[in-house]
Amino acid sequence: MKATVYAGRNSVEVQTVPDPTILNDRDAIVRITSTAICGSDLHLYDGYIPTVMRGDVLGHEFMGEVVEVGKGVTNLRAGDRVVVPFPIACGACSACERDLYSLCENSNPNAGIAEKLMGHSPAGLFGYSHMLGGFAGGQAEYARVPFADVGPLKIEDDLSDDQVLFLSDILPTGYMGAEMCDIKSGDIVAVWGAGPVGLFAMVSALLLGAAKVIAIDQVPYRLDLAKKLGATPLNFAETSVLEELRDMTAGRGPDHCIDAVGMEARNSTTAVDAYDRVKQAMRLETERPHALREAVMSCRNGGTISIVGVYGGLMDKFPIGAVMNRSLTIKTGQCHVHRYMRPLLELIRTGEIDPTVIISHHLELDQAPHGYEIFKHKQDNCTKVVLKP
Question: For the domain that residue 123 is a member of, what is the CATH number?
Fold first, then answer.
């Protein structure tokens, strides 16, 4: 089969690789009909996630048709149309029983590697390094899905792939980012990053009752889309974010701040941006945490910092004094996708959420290298690339 594989820093290739096969009674094989390039795939592409090897099949946002199931999978059969969540979860461990699916205790066969960096291991993820399981991803013609009796969501109506594909990751991730804020009527929410996850966090915050949502980015077409979705744009390249947020909130700061940027944040201040870039390039820190620093310093006293942007390891100059002295609450995590798929599917069915608005490009799988380039460099007004195997 054809698949998008890691070919070194800033390089992916579409190669012919072996077809997946059933390895466990709870496996399924899915023929991919739609898959997508995620912002967190760019961290792999840029070489910032450890234990990624040349030839690894990438991609963790995918859906398709079941073509084969193991004898332990009784809830799916060949021909079923499914969306596959990006975390792999057994459904039976202590974490899964608490709906903390991205922390599954049984799905990462390489947990020992993750423990050395993180203390404890999260769940295995599709297409996201050997530290997180070494599972082949979904930017391919076929994928093996472990624990298929737990993860895949069956789509039994005529909703299009574009409408439901993002249930695999970015829609639940954005929603969880807003939900962790515990938004009350009248609250003001600031979102750093107007990429796909940030846009869905904005939509979700408004659905959950926010009076105002502020979108912080520097790319005009992304800010334009955020405005169309109901947010107030703030271009950090043109002004001081801290001062603007104080002005917008009568000096108090936003009630909740969502970091939807993660480890490769940019900064309009040349010196600060250069500092983080040099430290990251020299592997003296793994993150460029400016967006998170800014969120902490901007948030009102007693407010919430919600982190759904991906971080991989260690950061420098994190303002823990502000967090402690100002009673800030930090909530974070890889999304527990399984928890949100069905409720969000209902919101899509009723038209309360339209995930298709963020799609800018449909490309053939063979065009994946071009898709990575335009997504990374924000060319051709690219907001989201959907690949069609």
Answer: 3.90.180.10
**Residues of the chain with pLDDT > 70: what percent?**
99
Question: pLDDT tens across 356-374, in order?
Answer: 999 999 999 999 999 999 9
Tell me the pTM.
0.96
CATH number at residue 326: 3.40.50.720
What's the chain's average pLDDT? 96
Q: What is the C-alpha separation between 189 and 186, in angstroms, rounded?
A: 10
Range of the domain at 214: 171-332
On whether both 225 and 315 belong to a single domain, the answer is: yes
Q: Report the domain count for the chain.
A: 2
With vertex at residue 17, the alpha carbon angle to CA 13 and CA 18, rounded to the nearest 5 degrees, is: 165
* Tokens describing residue 19: 């077809």
Q: What is the pLDDT of residue 275?
A: 82
Q: Which helix (H) or strand (E) holds 294?
A: helix 290-298
**Structural contact between residues 191 and 216, judged by C-beta atoms closer than 8 angstroms:** yes
For residue 207, the tally of other CB atoms under 10 A from its CB is 16
Supply 286's token pair: 């793994």
Backbone angles phi, psi at 247, to 5 degrees: -65, -35
Query: Are 59 and 104 contacting, i.e. CB atoms less than 8 angstroms apart?
Result: no
